[in-house]
Design a protein that fits this description.
This protein is α+β, with helices and mostly antiparallel strands and 69 residues long. It is built from one helix and three strands; from the N terminus they run βββα. The chain has a domain of 45 residues. The chain has a three-stranded antiparallel β-sheet with strand order 1-2-3.
């Protein structure tokens, strides 16, 4: 798998600073991780609750460039 670059932080139009938070979970084939942007650790935990309740797979992510596989 190739590495991806994520933004260190994002400042929105209201001047709020959104920071990346790592989400880790275990599945039948191993441990997986992704990140979400949130205002604080508490906000990230609230967003994770929303993810648990409403998440669906929207489709495959197609990368630009030379990837194996």
């Amino acid at each position: 798998m190739k590495d991806i670059t994520i933004p260190a932080r994002y400042i929105d139009e209201k001047q709020r600073v959104w920071k990346p938070y790592n989400v880790r979970f275990a599945g039948p084939d191993g441990v997986y991780e992704f990140y979400i942007q949130a205002l604080s650790i508490g906000h990230a935990e609230l967003l994770l609750e929303d993810i648990r309740a409403t998440a669906t797979v929207a489709g495959e992510v197609i990368a630009h460039g030379d990837l194996e596989g």
